[in-house]
Amino acid sequence: MKKSLLFGFSFLSILYSCEKIDHDVFFKIGSDLEYKFSDIELYDTSTHILYFKTVHDEFKDIENGTFTFLNNGDPIYTGSFWPGYSSSIPSGPFIMSPPYMYGNYALRIENWNFDNHDLRNDTRIIDILNQNNLLHSGLAISSSLIEITGTQLTFRFTVTNQDQSNLMIIDIEKTGPNLFHFFTNGLYIYDTAHNEVFSSNIEHQTPDPWNSWNIEWLSDLKAGESKEFTINYELNDPLIPGEYDTLFEFPGLSYQVTKDQLYQENSRIWLGDITINKRIVIQ
User: Fold this and answer.
1) What b/e sequence results for 34-62 when a residue is b if at least 16 CB atoms lie within 10 Å of its CB, and e otherwise?
2) What's the gap between Cα 130 and its chain centre?
């Protein structure tokens, strides 16, 4: 009888241990692919990119389905894989599929619907990332200024490294404006009725080969440091005085960088992009 009880307790203990291991799963794709905290390298909240410690070839075959972030086995939120060719916009968080933009070692969680609470910023995710030393804050555009003289527009903005890591960023002073605008569509200006009145007219220069990158394009931004950039644009016509909305996307590298290139000495190459929206008044 005692042996039977001991066997029963042992069996339950094994089951309980398995259950605990399952609770270490942080990210799940569909019903089959599970990734634990030990598989994750970091999560950058400025771009919502989830970095893995190794390359996962299974990512390249994903075209649709769902993904889920978990906390102690309980779902925090679920999103979908969304084909890049689709003409519709998903209602919540999604990963563009096939997710090849970041070399099968990172996945970017996007959200193009800002009418509701952004689930990507759920406090449970932030807390659990912080508890597991995976939380990174990345970059921010901390300020911007537009000066217009006739048809000459000068756009100044400041990029700040909010991360605890040193980050390598694309530097327009090193690439020049033409190559820089290969990675971004540049500045947009809209009137208050959302009609576009200006978009970047700088001709972009394609890298050779197109999927290459060069460390000479990048500057090392230490943790806590900021750097100001200036871009000059030519307006086709002077802007009528009034209020305008501006949009600018600061770019990073993406598919060009392999997993073994991500870290350059003591710095991480910052991937993705961040956007600033600001209302301005033209006198």
Assistant:
1) bbeeeebbbbbbbbbbbbbeeebeebeeb
2) 18
Q: Give the model confidence (pLDDT) of 70-106 as tens digits.
A: 999 999 999 999 987 877 888 899 999 987 789 999 9
pTM of the model: 0.90
Residue ranges of the chain that CATH labels 2.60.40.2360: 139-282
- Residue 77's closest CA among 123, 40, 33, 35? 123
- Residues with Cβ within 8 Å of 194's Cβ and at least 6 positions away in sequence, in order, are 245
CA-based end-to-end distance of the chain: 91
**Token pair 């000495």: residue:** 265
Rounded Cα–Cα distance for residues 152 and 125 (Å): 45
CA atoms within 13 A on the CB side of 234: 5
Looking at CATH, the fold of the domain delimited by 139-282 is given as Immunoglobulin-like (2.60.40)
* CA distances in angstroms from 231 to 149, 158, 172, 202, 279, listed in the order given: 14, 12, 8, 10, 18
Each residue's pLDDT tens digit, 169-225? 999 999 999 999 999 999 999 999 999 999 999 999 999 999 999 999 999 999 999
